[in-house]
Amino acid sequence: MTSTVPRTGRPHLARFVKTRYDRSRERQVLLGPETVVVLNPTGADILGLCDGTRTVAEIVEELGRRYDRVVDDEVEAFLSKLVSRRWVEIDHG
What does the alpha-carbon distance between residue 57 and residue 28 come to, in Å, rounded to a whole number? Predict the structure, then answer.
């Protein structure tokens, strides 16, 4: 799969998408129109860093400080999937 997420892109949640802590699930969830996605801790951390100011490379670098092992391709694939669903947008600038 070709990544739609350049390492210099600045990802952010689409305007109609939010993340929230769901007390009943005891997990972060991604909320979109008619959609609830339960996030694992790593996915929640990635999305928490997608604020439109950090590049994908900077997000990977920050995750590397938090976790023992971070694979760039896995972060890019995760973001690419969310971009294809229009839950995350990438600013190229």
Answer: 23
CA trace torsion 19, 12, 75, 46 (10° rounding): -40
CA distance 22 to 80: 24
Q: At what angle do helices 72-84 and 41-49 cross, to 10 degrees?
A: 80
- In this prediction, residue 1 carries a pLDDT of 45
How far is residue 33's CA from residue 4's CA, in Å, rounded to a whole number?
22
* 56-69 pLDDT tens trace: 999 999 998 888 88
Structure tokens at 7: 């390492």
